[in-house]
Amino acid sequence: MTITMTNNNQIEDQMALFSQLYPGVYTPIPPASRESKPRRRRRKNKGGDASGLMGAKKRKLSTEQVTLLEESFGNEHKLESDRKDRLASELGLDPRQVAVWFQNRRARWKSKKLEEEYSKLKSLHEAAIVEKCRLETEVLKLKEQLSEAGKEIQKLSSISSSSSSSDHQRCCDHQGFNSSNSPSTSSISMDRGQPDFLGDFGYEDDVMFYMPENSYSVQCMEWLNLYM
DNA sequence: TTGTGTTTTATTGCCTCC
DNA sequence: GGAGGCAATAAAACACAA
């Protein structure tokens, strides 16, 4: 009983996790929709034998019987009536026992398959997390480079402002700045309309900063915090 | 030896299909 | 309506640590 209960609980947990990790991909079927009305709890059969199938005690199948049943299950998971009868007479079992064995075997197989599927998806998910972290690190590095380049531009523009106005104009023309000290859109674009940068630059306390256009990186970090 | 967890065999109740 | 499938569950059998 325990394993069945454990497996069922595990499966429920796994499915809950699936739906959490892959919303929209997997939607768990709520128990209510699987069953229209509450299942009646079956009564205990203490020692009695209502079916007449077995005696007072449960009979464990022999290794040979199980081997043959496993072999048959390997060939075909479903059990047609004639195959059931043939197997039963071959093994010296009641056809009902063969049917029950196949039923339970299918349940075990299903549960195992589900567990395998779960671990496969889990490792895929973990790999995706690692890749995401790598990409985020790369983004941070690139942002740093961008910031350095911005500082360099600022330095050059302050040098040019101290020169004569003609020199200044020449320099600015060469560097791609206009005479009002703001970046020109001709060679270095920082306008939102240009595709070179995805955000805006600004100055604060003599430090140039870059503000991303969207909040993607923030979303990423929040998402990462959820699963790491 | 005994308590506890796991596995296996079997039952019950419901559902679907022919 | 009967056969067969499945989920849920019971209970025997088994494994194993304390």
Automatic annotation (TrEMBL):
Keyword Transcription attributed: yes
Gene3D superfamilies, A to Z: Homeodomain-like
Protein name as catalogued: Homeobox-leucine zipper protein
Function: Transcription factor.
Family to which this protein belongs: Belongs to the HD-ZIP homeobox family. Class I subfamily.
GO cellular component terms attached to this protein's record: nucleus
SMART domains referenced in this protein's UniProt entry, alphabetically: HOX (SM00389)
Any GO MF annotation of the entry: DNA-binding transcription factor activity, RNA polymerase II-specific
UniProt keyword annotation of Protease present: no
GO BP: any one term: positive regulation of DNA-templated transcription
Residue ranges for the DNA-binding region feature of this UniProt entry: 59-113
Domain of life: Eukaryota
Record key words, sorted: DNA-binding, Homeobox, Nucleus, Transcription, Transcription regulation
Organism, as annotated: Punica granatum
Pfam families: Homeodomain
Subcellular location per the Swiss-Prot or TrEMBL entry: Nucleus
Matches recorded under InterPro entries: HD, HDZip_class_I_plant, Homeobox_CS, Homeodomain-like_sf, HTH_motif
